[in-house]
Sequence to fold (139 residues):
Amino acid sequence: MLRRKAPAPKPSPNGRHDTLLGLSTSMAGTLQVPGHVRLEGVFEGHIEAGGNVIVGQGARVVADIVGRDVVVHGAVLGNVTASGRLDISPTGGVWGDVTAQSMVVDEGGVLHGQSTMLREPPPQSLLLAAPLENEERET
Fold:
């Protein structure tokens, strides 16, 4: 897969995370964060962030994730919704459906599920020009 060399999203303007789940930490439940979150440990439940979500290389997440930009270096079992960009690194994997404005899966990264891009629907003129499957074709 081709990859455009775009920089990974920044965790926050000041380079800090509002919430950090450390490497030796495990947690279950619902995590609602108005800003950014970085996960390095084990989490099970649901994650909703107003900012970016970063899943560290050693992290194991069994949860649906909702955030602005989502970067996956570890393992996620659940659906991911990014209102911005989803980035799956060579060490990362998502086993679930993903929805994002844009998406990058690096070589070695895993996406096992369906993907949906958050884009405007095609123009009506394009839809009218496309033949329908059930439309009879003239011979």
Q: What stands out?
A: The two ends are 40 Å apart (CA to CA).
